[in-house]
Specification:
The chain has about 350 residues and is an alpha/beta fold. The chain contains 11 helices and 9 strands. Helix content is about 35%, strand content about 10%.
Length: about 350
């Protein structure tokens, strides 16, 4: 893995996002118009380009160190990638509302087709042309994608997951070729299938194989319509996740509290931790002092040079004003704690 390529460009306790950004009402209407056949694909792409530029600017103004495209081209956490997956059929592409899930079926086990089989590399190329900041680029992982594909035929669930992982690996190689430094695999459904952590890790190792970037894995408890889909603790990830070829775990702690920090320490997670310090399921804007307190508590378990500071999950379900305020508070809170640290805690090569 290539942990240092991003770390060398950001301060200790760098701030970042998990992925998604608010979709304004006007964009919701236009995206829904597209799925109802009232808007062309090229027109929708122009709208997406404008929205992504605005999201990047919002993050930069808030003081975020590692930015994302806000996943604003994507309808939800699954469909954008699943609909592009070879071997997957979408019998009905119209939607009543853009955020609805497709009903997908497996026509054949996916196989990589071309250097960028899912077309995500082009999305990264657009984003990288709009900002000089380091970029986190995320995509949904093979286990969660498989959960929305039905009618597997003679194939097993494991066959499907591993085949999807191979396609995602080809896409990751294309992203790395374009200069992507930090790729994040999102597994939003894994907390609802806690007995499948071993399968998910097997597939993650296929996705990351041979792709020399910094790899993150995000696991949350669901964020559909700003509500958790499941409850529990992250102990279900262990010990399986210890054999995952990744550099970071990105987890939620703001909503759930700090209990799981002890789990991370107990099992000896050796990599970085993306520390969720902002609750994305409420419109309440945390104060910088509260953010700082949450970071200080985490420092009892994880050293500063292994922490990255982020919201619990994506910001899609809050308003733009709330997202901007939460990110600005998060950046200020991180600076408060950063200024308290002795110089020895800074990562080698990081800026103070």
């Amino acid at each position: 893995m290539a942990r240092g390529t991003v770390r060398a460009r950001v301060p200790v306790l760098p701030t970042t996002v998990v992925g998604s950004y608010p979709v304004p009402d006007w964009l919701e209407r236009l995206k829904t118009d597209y799925f109802r056949g009232r808007m062309s694909y090229s027109q929708l792409q122009d709208v997406h380009d404008m929205a992504i530029k605005a999201a990047l600017r919002d993050q930069e103004l808030a003081g975020i160190d590692i930015v994302s495209d806000g996943e604003l081209r994507r309808d939800n956490d699954i469909d954008y990638t699943l609909a592009r997956m070879p071997g997957i059929e979408i019998p009905e592409t119209a939607k009543d509302f853009y955020f609805d899930y497709y009903e997908a079926k497996v026509a054949a086990l996916p196989e990589p087709a071309g250097p960028s089989p899912l077309g995500l590399a082009a999305d990264y190329a657009f984003t990288s042309a709009q900002t000089a900041a380091p970029i986190k680029f995320s995509f949904t992982g093979p286990f969660s994608l498989s959960c929305r594909a039905h009618d597997l035929g003679p194939a097993s669930r494991r066959d499907l997951v591993m085949a999807m992982a191979a396609v995602l690996n080809a896409e990751a190689r294309a992203l790395a070729e374009l200069g992507a430094e930090l790729l994040q695999i999102d597994e939003p459904f894994l907390a609802g299938h806690t007995g499948q952590a071993g399968l998910a890790v097997d597939a993650i190792n296929v996705v990351t194989a041979g792709v020399d970037v910094t790899w993150a894995l995000h696991v949350c408890y669901g964020n559909r319509y700003a509500r958790p889909s499941w409850e529990g603790h992250y102990d279900f990830l262990f010990p399986e996740v210890l054999r995952a070829d990744i550099d970071q775990l990105v987890l939620e702690f703001a909503r759930k509290g700090d209990d799981d920090l002890a789990i991370i320490e107990k099992f000896g997670w050796p990599g970085d931790l993306g520390l969720g310090v902002v609750d994305v399921k409420t419109d309440h804007v945390e104060s910088p002092d509260l953010i700082a307190t949450r970071i200080r508590r985490a420092l009892r378990h994880i050293p500063a040079d292994r922490l990255m500071i982020n919201p619990d999950c994506g910001l899609r379900n809050v308003t733009g004003a709330i997202a901007r305020a939460k990110l600005a508070a998060m950046a200020r809170g991180a600076r408060i704690v950063r200024d308290e640290l002795p110089p020895i805690t800074h990562s080698e090569g990081a800026t103070p």
